[in-house]
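stage 2 :: seqdesign
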């Protein structure tokens, strides 16, 4: 056939195929939730035949705002303006997709999907369950998050009857990971490191990431060796004031560690996604180390792994989705841990529960695994597992999965049928 056959628009799930979706989230922030929101946006934009997207942006804590003005940013800005005009005219949405912590979930449309990440412990707050049960579906970023959401229970009292009941999540919970990002042309980064072998860690200073111990244990293990640790970090925002404060705190901390030959480098400031990927791929970086108490997913760990870096990490929580291969084999230097109660200073009403637990990396195991990684270093990176991650977590697969999770079962099945039909018709052109 010379001409492509046009497939007529079909009606299902109470309306047309194309749904008006309100995406509410911190799309313009340098944060994990910002990354989530942008992934959700890209997934929806991959199926413009199914969705008309509207955007309500959110701030996110003390994190920086994304600064690059690329095609996506221009599109987001234009869509925000379109959304404001549409709401002012009394426009309604078919679906709301809310990227935030469950405390902030709202019913904004006939169908409401909550998309959240921050489950780094063994238990979610009862407020999360209550708000989740007001939604039609919950999407999380890892199997760890899904398991914690589904397994958390509280004894509660029915306010109307006085009956003792069990509060648990009734809304379906599904897991969606992140896609691998690929770049054709990466910017060149001149790191100027003087050490022959260098670990990299990417983490914000704070209790959860366990960065102080990561640095301390590195120094104690490699004190008299030509080994470096590059710390890509900030305290809150990538500002000059933040850099000055962090540099001062880190300098004071390092002085307390005594004389040493090994080096600790601070890399501070806003970096684009491409620049971060260039950092993971830099020939002066030989391994990645991260010893957090818990991760919803662990995006820097993921990016390091699919860049081909050997990874030293705590063997618990969200990162196991990609640090263990499809056959159940560990593909990282597994640091042993103990599950213990979270620190008092991180307890956060409605978010982090006082009696929840997370992983405490064992000092001896952390040092042992960093040493093993160092001794097994090779001149060339082994990209075999990196390639398998690229295939497992390709943009096409991850976008397709996320799109399916935002739809009803009937809509998803119809969408898949239409896609298969179109592919079959293309074969006859």
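stage 2 :: out
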């Amino acid at each position: 056939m010379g001409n492509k056959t046009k497939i007529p628009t079909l009606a299902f799930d109470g309306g047309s195929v194309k749904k008006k979706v309100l995406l509410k989230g911190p799309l313009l922030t340098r944060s994990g939730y910002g990354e989530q929101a942008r992934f959700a946006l890209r997934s929806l934009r991959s199926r413009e035949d199914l969705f008309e997207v509207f955007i309500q942006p959110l701030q996110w804590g003390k994190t920086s705002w994304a600064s690059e003005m690329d095609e996506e940013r221009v599109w987001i800005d234009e869509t925000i303006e379109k959304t404001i005009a549409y709401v002012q005219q009394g426009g309604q949405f078919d679906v709301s997709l809310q990227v935030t912590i469950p405390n902030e979930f709202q019913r904004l449309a006939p169908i409401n999907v909550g998309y959240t990440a921050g489950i780094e412990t063994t238990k979610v707050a009862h407020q999360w369950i209550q708000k989740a049960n007001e939604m039609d579906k919950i999407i999380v970023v890892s199997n760890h998050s899904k398991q914690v959401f589904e397994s958390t229970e509280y004894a509660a009292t029915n306010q109307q009857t006085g009956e003792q009941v069990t509060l648990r999540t009734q809304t379906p919970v599904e897991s969606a990971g992140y896609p691998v990002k690929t770049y054709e042309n990466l910017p060149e980064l001149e790191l100027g490191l003087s050490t022959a072998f260098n670990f990299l860690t990417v983490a914000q200073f704070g209790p959860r990431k366990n960065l102080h111990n990561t640095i301390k244990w590195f120094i104690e293990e490699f004190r008299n060796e030509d080994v470096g640790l590059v710390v890509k970090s900030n305290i809150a925002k990538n500002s000059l004031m933040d850099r000055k404060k962090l540099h001062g705190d880190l300098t004071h901390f390092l002085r307390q560690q005594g004389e040493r030959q090994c080096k600790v480098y601070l890399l501070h400031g806003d970096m684009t996604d491409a620049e971060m990927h260039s950092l993971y791929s830099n020939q002066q970086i030989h391994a990645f180390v991260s010893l957090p108490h818990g991760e919803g997913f662990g995006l820097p760990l993921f990016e390091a792994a699919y860049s081909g870096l050997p990874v030293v990490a705590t063997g618990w929580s969200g990162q196991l989705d990609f640090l263990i291969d499809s056959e159940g084999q560990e593909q990282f230097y597994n640091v042993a841990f103990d599950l213990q109660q979270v620190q008092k200073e991180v307890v956060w009403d409605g978010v982090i529960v006082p009696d929840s637990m997370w992983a405490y990396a064992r000092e001896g195991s952390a040092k042992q695994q960093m040493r093993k990684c160092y001794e097994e270093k090779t001149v060339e990176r082994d990209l075999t597992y990196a390639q398998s991650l690229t295939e497992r977590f390709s943009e096409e697969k991850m976008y397709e999965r996320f799109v399916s999770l935002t739809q009803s079962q009937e809509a998803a099945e119809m969408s898949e049928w239409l896609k298969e039909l179109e592919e079959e018709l293309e074969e006859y052109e």
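stage 3 :: structure notes
- The CA atoms of residues 227 and 262 lie 5 Å apart.
- The chain has two domains: 11-179+394-423, 197-392.
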